[in-house]
Design a protein that fits this description.
- There is one protein chain.
- By secondary structure, the protein is mainly alpha-helical.
- Helices cover about 60% and strands about 5% of the residues.
- It has nine helices and two strands.
- It has a two-stranded antiparallel ribbon with strand order 1-2.
- A hairpin with a 2-residue loop joins β1 (about 170) and β2.
- α2 runs antiparallel to α3 (about 40-55).
- It is elongated, with a radius of gyration of 18 Å.
- Mean pLDDT is about 80; it is low at about 155-193.
């Protein structure tokens, strides 16, 4: 394992299975083991933080996400995913919401732009807009809300390239955001949806 820490990623599905069987303690032990033996594997830190947040242990989740940002070098989760979750905890789950820190984390997530899923990019723009709105910065809020619409609604390779995300394929045509569930009620005008 010391020669190939990526081999430890093979244990992560066991933790996912433990979570489906409502055995979070066992899943936590797997994440801790993998994180201690392969500290550069972002996935263990992210999934551990996700589990802890789901259990309501936000301080510990924050520690895990911050460790993943600091030590993580490889894995399927990008730094953007970590910054997004850190911002989400500060804005939505912290006992005293810290919107300034959340804004910083959301901005870092957007600037790193290595999200695992486009949904997270869209949600980051939305939550950053919400933070601006609550802090009485309407111009910045509107700008963030407007960033969300082109990502979600407009098709084509240009939209995908501008956000470094692979667009979904539908009928041989690349349409960015087609993989998102449900209708897109905020798509207006003549943009293809």
């Amino acid at each position: 394992w010391q020669r190939s820490p990526l081999a430890l990623a093979e244990f992560l599905p066991f933790a996912a299975y433990a979570r489906t069987q409502e055995r979070p303690l066992f899943a936590q032990q797997i994440y801790e083991l993998v994180g201690s033996l392969a500290p550069g594997l972002r996935d263990a830190w992210y999934l551990q933080g996700d589990l802890l947040a789901a259990e309501g242990a936000y301080s510990l989740a924050l520690e895990s996400f911050e460790t993943g940002v600091a030590q993580g070098e490889y894995g399927r989760f990008g730094k953007s995913d970590f910054y997004f979750r850190i911002g989400e905890i500060y804005a939505l789950y912290w006992p005293q919401p810290d919107l300034e820190t959340a804004q910083t984390m959301y901005a870092l997530a957007i600037s790193n732009n290595d999200f695992q899923e486009v949904n997270s990019l869209i949600r980051t723009h939305f939550l950053l807009g919400e933070a601006y709105r609550i802090l009485d910065q309407p111009v910045e809020a509107i700008a963030e809300y407007e960033q969300r619409v082109p990502i979600h609604c407009r098709g084509g390779a240009a939209a995908a390239a501008s956000h470094h995300h692979k667009p979904a394929r539908k009928g041989g045509v690349q349409r960015f955001g087609d993989d998102l569930p449900g209708k897109r009620p905020f798509c207006r005008g003549s943009h293809p949806v």
